Amino acid sequence: MNLVFVGDLHAADRPPAGRVDDYISTVLTKLKYVAHICEEQKAPYAFFSGDIFHSKHSNRVSDYLRQRLIEAFKRFPCPVYVVPGNHDLGPDGLESLPHQPLGTLAKAGAVH
User: Fold this and answer.
1) Is 82 helix (H, G, I), strand (E, B) or coil?
2) How many CB atoms lie within 10 A of CB 5?
3) Which one, of 78, 70, 75, 79, lies nearest residue 103 by Cα?
4) How sure is the predictor about 57, in pLDDT bands with cuts at 50, 70 and 90?
5) How many CA atoms lie within 13 A of 107 on its CB side?
6) In Å, what is the CA distance from 74 to each residue of 6, 13, 32, 70, 78?
7) Residue 50's pLDDT band (boundaries 50, 70, 90)?
8) Counting runs of H as helices and runs of E as strands, what totals does the chain give?
9) Alpha-helix residue ranges (DSSP H) falling in the chain
10) Does residue 18 register a pLDDT over 90?
11) pTM exceeds 0.85
């Protein structure tokens, strides 16, 4: 059985310092490639080890970015599981998830 593991996506509306590319487009292209690997390897699951988003503050993550990520994760040929990272959770830990950007992806059924 082949499993796919990915770490620290750090999706953000604004690129990190020094990045001059279209950062959102680059992140989405990487997700498309990972989905392709899952399909090619017939992986029954994909696991992301946290930090899907760079900012844990809901007001710093646009609806546009959330929607694009929902679409990208829903295109995976297998279920996607996320272990929330420190950038995905607020000060209340897992209890903050429903109010965080990652919680939006989970509510949409894009990730587990």
Assistant:
1) strand
2) 11
3) 70
4) confident
5) 10
6) 16, 20, 11, 6, 9
7) confident
8) 3, 3
9) 23-40, 63-74, 101-107
10) no
11) yes
